[in-house]
Request: fold
Amino acid sequence: MNSMGLNPSSLEPKPHASRPAQRLGERLLAAGLVSRFQLEMALQEQLSTKKRLGEIVVAKGWVPYAVLEKIAAGMIHNGTKPVRSVKNKITF
Reply:
């Protein structure tokens, strides 16, 4: 556990050969980075603003950008979804 109460191993990419790929919100929730309430709020904002979920959780201060990049790297590694990082703005 680190100072944020996170288990660093929960951020490491894990093989998902036998189960379907997780979406970003599911990964953030599973890692304990956001609560279900925060995820629901972010998803509602995403619907109304068309912003990316990663942008929203970072802008709200819920997930540090560096941690989001680790989560995104795991998604790329597992082939879940294409991810682009452009000038410190991460998009999913």
In short: The mean pLDDT is 77. The chain is about 45% helix and 5% strand.
